[in-house]
Structures are given as C-alpha cells and as structure tokens.
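Why does residue order matter? Because the sequence determines the fold. Keep that principle in mind as you read this record.
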Amino acid sequence: MTDPSVPPDQPTPTLSVPEPSAAESSSAVAPSPAVAPIEPWQALALKELQERRAALEAEIQELETRRHQLQKSLVSSFDGQADAIARRLKGFQDYLVVALQDLAGQAEQMELVVPPVVVQPSPLDQPAEVAAAAAPAAPAAAGLFSEDEDLIRSQLERFQGQPDFYADPWKLRRSLEAPAAGLLEEWFLYQGGRGAQASGGSRSRNALTVAAAVAILGELYGERFQTLVLAGQPERLGEWRRGLQDCLGLSREDFGPNSGVVLFERPDALIERADRLEERGELPFIVIDAAEQVVDIPVLQFPLWLAFAATPAELAIDEELL
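Structure:
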C-alpha cells in the first residue's frame, strides 16, 4: 500500500542504525568480575594461624630432638647398668659357694643329735643311804637307738669273737677289730646313727665296718631298710660290692635298685632314692665313701648316714690308683 503524500517516482526513505565498535562488543559479551578486598579481621586471623603453625612446628622439632637424646641415653646407661648387675651377681654367686662350703664343713663337725637331758632327783630328796649307794650313770644312748643299747653292745661284743664263715646271708661272717667296734659303738649310741667317723685306712676295712652295722640294723629293723653306698668312681663301687659281698655272704642279686644294697656314683640319685624309700615307710642307710670330701646338705636330713673321713695319706694313695 502506497502513501498518497509521497510521489510515486521518489524512493522510500530508510532508517540507519550505527554499528557498535569492537571494544563495545567485547564489553557487552564478557563483563570483567570485581575482586573483593580482604577485610582487616581476615588478615589478622590468617596471621595468627601462621604464627601458631610456626610455633607448633618448632615445638615438634624440639620434642624430636629430646626423643633422640633420651634414646641415646637409655642405650648407653643400660649397657653400664647391665655390666654392674652382672658383676654383682657374680660376686653374690661366689659368696654363696663359699658360704655353702663353710656350712657343709661345719655340719660335718657339729653334733646333730642332742643328747637327752636326764633330770636326776636332788640328793636332799633321797635318804642318805640311797644317795651314797647311787653310782654315776653311764651316758645314755642317743637318737633312734636309745632303747637298743643292750642289743647293740652285745652284738658288737659277739662280732669281735671268732668269725662265722657259714653264717646266713646278711649276718657278719668276719671278725670285727676293736677299733672298728669302738667306732660303731660311738656311731650307734652317741651319734644316734648320724655322723662322720675316721676311715679305717682302706676301703676293705670300711666295708667290714659297714657290714657289721648292716648286720645290727637287720636285727633291729629286719628288711625295712636299704643300704645306699655313695662312691664317685666305678672302681671304688666295685671294691664296696666285693667287700660287702664277702663280709655278709651276699650274691650279685643283692645289689640293685630293688635289693638290699644300692651303689651310686652321684649324690643326687642317692638322695632321690632315699626320698622314695621314706615315702614307702622304709629306712635308708646312707654310706659315704672316704674319697668323697664333702657331704651334700640334703643327706643330713635322713636319720641314718655314716661318712668316712679319709686321712691325707689315704687320699693320696687313692688318687695314685686312678
């Protein structure tokens, strides 16, 4: 549709819009963000956090240094203390060994059986005639044999007579010499069957003395006791076996764990056997060879033990034979 006010031969006027520049176009497409400024309180908090972190790192470093120093100190001081403890233990061990040796030596010399105290009535309580007629009494027997004094003395007297070569087994078949009889009298009646006596000078004589003691114990206790012989060498045990076999008329079957005589090379085995006998209600009779220079303390607890003390000459001869 044409405008009647405009002539037909003239062109229609157009409206022109100016184009924007490049800078204006870019600003219109991507506007730049605004950076917010840091507040003062935020800066102060950040500074405090950094200072605390630095203080903690310094404290951790100091603790690490102290830990290393403590470890070095512990290692060095432990070695020194361990050496000092070892020296003290060694000194205490030496002290115990010497003390036990002294105790064993004193135990050999002391009288372990206290004689019974016999209280006699006062002479003022008796008539003058009875007091004048009273004779001094002989020392009373001690220990297990306080009531068997007459039997023991009669047996010892009989053993000193003519030997009975055809006596029954476990009876003395040889003649006992007077010194050996005196030794047994001392051991039975005044030591109560527990103590050391001087050696007869040879193992055969000691075996004869022990055979007489075994014969007397057989009269007193029957088969309720067992003889345990301690000698540290097989050769010595062989001499003991031959001596007892000859003096008591024994055979090889009488020497063994379940027989009348048991031979031992080590004291611990003998002590264990003696404990078992006592548990069964039997009586162990312990004999210690003269070559054994010490008596083990556990042996002292048993009621019957006889140790022979050898002379230096006897010990020298025994050492030469080995």
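The first strand starts at residue 194 and ends at 198.
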